[in-house]
Amino acid sequence: MLEPSTIQQRGFRNVTENGSVIGFQVAVRSKYYRGVWLSQLRPATVTVDGEAFGGDQISWTVGGQTVRQSELGRHGDIHWGNMDAAVLTVHKPGGLVPGIHDVDITFQYSASYLPPRIDLRPLGSEPRRMVLVR
Amino acid sequence: MGITRKEFIKASSLIAAGAAMASVHAAGSPSRTPPPQQPGINRGVSLYSYAGEIGVTMTLDDCFADMYDMGAGGLEILANAHIENYPNPPSAWLDNWYSLLERYAIVPVEYGHWVDSRLYPGRELDTNESYEMLVRDIKLASKLGFTVMRTKLGVTDEILTPVANWQAFIERALPVAEKYNVRMCPELHQPTALKSAMVDEYVGFIERTGTKHFGLNIDFGVFQLEEGRLRIPGMDNPRSEPEDMIPLLPYTYACHAKFTYMNDDLIDPTHPYERILALLREHRWQGYLLSEYEGEGKDIIGHSSDQLRRQHVMMKRYLGEV
After folding, report:
1. Which of B160, B163, B169 shows the shortest CA–CA distance to B124?
2. How many distinct structural domains can be found in chain A?
């Protein structure tokens, strides 16, 4: 089961690669009532304690497949179900300091069944104070 | 008595031409046999109603148990919301799916899916791509036992005119729909009026092709009174009358029993259910009313269930079940 908020505390931790901390990860769920293909998403912005990350500083991992944000638009073949969390990995050498962090995540999705004027719908924008341990 | 999956799917498919299976829920534990085929108007639920809780405070199994309490004999799923690892559900999920249908005696009625014309940024899907997306869902819907599909098309303007090539890919998919025994049904939803050029175009397509595999899903929100209707700046959102359904009923394979608020008198003040259901009974329409709760508070634990239960008491009264 997922946590009610968009930003999930489970999954919030630093990421280590080859012995060094290359950044951190945070999981999100979609409050949209249906799943989307990654190509229907628009790149996310992750903000931690006022510092914003975007573009290819972030990659999305869904169902075991990881995609850089600049590649999202090509992936009409990877589906993000709304009963699954997606993990955003944020490149930040050294990662985050263990402790309390204010995190926010915003992104958009495309809805073909709505008028083109309102094709892109916002998700996220629900700041959450979370604790990172490692 | 158990039956095999194959037999169950075969039995389910018989609801095709509007003949429908009803719920026959004896008191006590859920039945192990599927519901018998029975003509008439049947109550069901769209899992969309649980959107605020499913995956967070309710599992798929919880939704089935809740529907069983209501005597709901059929359901709608949204394929890309409710099928694990859509469009490739694992076998364990499929086993559980068939088991739930049997245990709670619920018929898989309608499979909600989309032909997402704006799948890729900056362009529309071509006819071939749209066809491929459609066929993938036809096969999966059939595999799960569904006989009606709520086929949501991409739109091009404020009044929800479907993409220009819709007839091309739908017509090409008709033989596939026939082979897999499903009916593709766009949903007639406000701000679209039942008396409109768009609905005329759908009916014209059905009459031109003579198909039994493309039809309509009427969303009762089209009858919503002024105080609850969608407001779109600079746009009309004309209210339809229940009588406007009459010429469409032969092509209507499912209805969305849209509601937004059930009060303590067990009515929805902005949807004229008594007139809608009286008309369907008078014209001997057969099929499922799939509840779609679209009111406030969907993320409040238990609220959607409470609203659905109220609506089902109302529908039972108007259908003469009590």
Report:
1. B163
2. 1
Mutual angle of helices B273-282 and B303-318, in 10-degree steps: 50
β-bridge partners, B149: B111, B184
Contacts of A3 (CB under 8 A, 6+ apart): A9, A10, A29, B56
- Report the complex ipTM: 0.95
Q: Are A119 and B118 in contact (CB under 8 A)?
A: yes
Tell me the pTM: 0.91
Q: What residues in B contact A33, CB-CB < 8 Å?
A: 48, 51, 78, 81
Q: Where are the domains of chain B?
A: 5-318
pLDDT for B124-181, tens place per residue?
Answer: 999 999 999 999 999 999 999 999 999 999 999 988 899 999 999 999 999 999 999 9
Instruction: Supply the range of the domain harboring residue A64.
Output: 7-132
- Give the Å distances, CA to CA, from B26 to B70, B71, B72, B75, B313: 12, 10, 13, 19, 17
A76, A110, A115 ranked by CB distance to B158: nearest? A115
Return phi, psi of residue B38, to 5°: -150, 135
Which residue is catalytic, options B25, B82, B113, B189? B189
Q: Which CATH architecture has domain B5-318?
A: Alpha-Beta Barrel (3.20)
Q: What is the number of residues in chain A?
A: 134
Copy the structure tokens of residue A92. Answer: 């930040």
Summarised one tens digit per residue, pLDDT across range A77-132 is 999 999 999 999 999 999 999 999 999 999 999 999 999 999 999 999 899 999 99
- Helix, strand, coil % (nearest 5) of chain A? 10, 55, 35
Residue A36 distance to chain B (closest CA, Å) = 7
Q: Is B189 a residue of the active site?
A: yes
Q: Are B72 and B23 in contact (CB under 8 A)?
A: yes
Check: CB of residue A58 under 8 Å from CB of residue A90. Answer: yes
Residue B298 to chain A, least CA–CA distance (Å) = 11
